[in-house]
Backbone:
């Protein structure tokens, strides 16, 4: 990573000697204006600071990706001040309307504005209606949405904990989110997307309150609304504790507030899943294989995996790695984070499992279940796909089973496909590989559109599978499917393998995120 510096052009001394005093003054004013223009601001605001020097040219000005996407940068500042706007580097193919946003680390939109009078290429700038005050050392995200893709990119810009910026403002991660425009959370190849901010340190312009007003720069109606947070227990107002495996946990995303019909629904995400803010965690010192009834509260569980061989285990307000429940055991997990890391295994499985308000990520699947599972109000996302692995990933998967309920979850298989055949099968998949499938309820979930997902839902019927024709009592109702960039949620469609004529199978009131009906 090369550090950038910007220096004013120097003039030949012999020329300056012969200039009249008024000409010297004019030249100095011009130099000041040039310095101001370098950072995309006027001369009386030349104290604005950005991550990238103004004349930075991207390594890849136009990534070959035509899908609608929100791309951004995670950053922090070292001194008090405010963000007055955002900017991004534009390629000629990146056409259409662009909306810039500033977000809190938890996914609350602090400000938004639509870019106007854009040039065909190069850096584009937009200012917010009001500046937004920042707290030094706190993480924020700046982003913009493009409906046509072809965004600028530099892969591996943030590899090995590299940063971009200067002593005032420093970027630590590039993030993205495919779809209509929501909080960007995913990362890929440690890439940077040449998104930037205009930061004004205090003492150089009006200083706003560091608590943004509730009416700050409302986003356009096509964007996701800021999430609401249901009541949850909390012990303080401090920020979310850091993840247990730095560098492996995706930045959190906020799924959109959308709805089925006229009643809006806020789906699970970082603000309403995982360990409640302010919870003080201590190390778990119990066994990694549990054989008796056990309660685990406010712990960091470092077992890989935590195996429930027997007995009933209650886990709450905790952070853990993989958990595997065997046939003689059961586990109920609430208000917790499950991080499978870089593992070829599910974050949570395989039976007798209840998850509520859980943030599950890492591994090849977020949840894998064969029988007796309830997943509710949870966020399944951030699967791990190595560059050399032909893995097939899912947010939820069953290879045969029964008695499963998935109610009001955000289901997102968001690992981008690699070059050796690995990628996402679906947000939720039922396959008849090892036994028949029966008694499944998918009720009120959000199926998230991501690049490389074949279908957002595989509903079980597949004659090529050993038990693929034995699919009964599959109920799919009240779910929302994101259209995504291609309008189909998955690469080929929202759902496949749903057999409407099979005994007990029901499909009702499932809609796109624009409110129109989805048919299998």
Residues:
């Amino acid at each position: 990573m090369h550090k950038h510096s910007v220096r004013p052009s120097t003039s030949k001394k012999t020329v300056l000697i012969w200039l009249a005093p008024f000409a010297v003054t004019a030249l100095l004013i011009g130099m000041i204006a040039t310095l101001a223009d370098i950072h995309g601001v006027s001369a009386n605001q030349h104290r604005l600071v950005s991550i990238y020097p103004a004349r930075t040219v991207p390594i890849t000005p136009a990534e070959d990706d035509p899908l609608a996407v929100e791309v951004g940068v995670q950053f922090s500042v070292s001194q008090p001040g405010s963000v007055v706007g955002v900017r991004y580097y534009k390629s000629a193919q990146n056409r259409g309307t662009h909306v810039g946003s500033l977000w809190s680390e938890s996914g609350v939109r602090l400000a938004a504005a639509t870019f106007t009078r854009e040039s065909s290429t190069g850096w584009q700038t937009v200012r917010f209606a009001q500046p937004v005050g920042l707290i030094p050392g706190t993480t924020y995200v700046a982003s913009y949405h493009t409906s046509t893709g072809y965004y600028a990119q530099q892969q591996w810009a943030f590899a090995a904990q590299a940063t971009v910026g200067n002593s005032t403002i420093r970027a630590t991660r590039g993030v993205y989110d495919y779809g209509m425009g929501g909080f960007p959370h995913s990362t890929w190849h440690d890439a940077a997307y040449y998104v930037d901010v205009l930061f004004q340190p205090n003492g150089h312009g009006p200083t706003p309150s560091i608590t943004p007003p509730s009416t700050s720069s409302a986003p356009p109606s096509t964007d996701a609304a800021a999430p609401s947070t249901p009541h949850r227990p909390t012990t303080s107002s401090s920020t979310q504790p850091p993840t247990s495996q730095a560098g492996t946990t995706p930045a959190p995303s906020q799924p959109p507030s959308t709805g089925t019909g006229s009643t809006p629904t806020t789906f699970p995400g970082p603000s309403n899943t995982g360990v409640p803010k302010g919870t003080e965690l201590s190390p778990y010192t119990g066994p990694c294989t549990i054989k008796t009834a056990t309660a685990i509260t406010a712990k960091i569980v470092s077992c890989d995996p935590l195996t429930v061989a027997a007995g009933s285990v209650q886990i709450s307000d905790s952070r853990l790695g993989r958990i595997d429940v065997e046939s003689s055991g059961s586990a109920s997990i609430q208000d917790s984070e499950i991080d499978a890391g870089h593992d070829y295994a599910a974050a949570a499985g395989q039976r007798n499992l209840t998850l509520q308000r859980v943030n599950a990520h890492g591994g090849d699947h977020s949840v894998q279940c064969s029988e007796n599972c309830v997943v509710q109000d949870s966020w399944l996302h951030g699967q791990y796909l190595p560059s050399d692995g032909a893995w097939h990933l899912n947010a939820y998967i069953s290879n045969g089973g029964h008695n499963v309920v998935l109610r009001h979850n955000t289901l997102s298989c968001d690992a981008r496909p690699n070059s050796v055949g690995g990628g996402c099968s679906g947000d939720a998949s039922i396959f008849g590989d090892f036994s028949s499938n029966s008694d499944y309820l998918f009720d009120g979930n959000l199926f998230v559109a991501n690049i490389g997902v074949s279908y957002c839902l595989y509903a079980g019927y597949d004659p090529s599978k050993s038990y693929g024709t034995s699919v009964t009592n599959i109920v799919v109702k009240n779910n929302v499917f994101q259209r995504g960039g291609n309008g189909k949620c998955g690469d080929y469609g929202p759902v496949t393998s749903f057999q409407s004529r099979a005994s007990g199978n029901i499909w009702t009131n499932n809609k796109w995120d624009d409110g129109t009906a989805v048919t299998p």
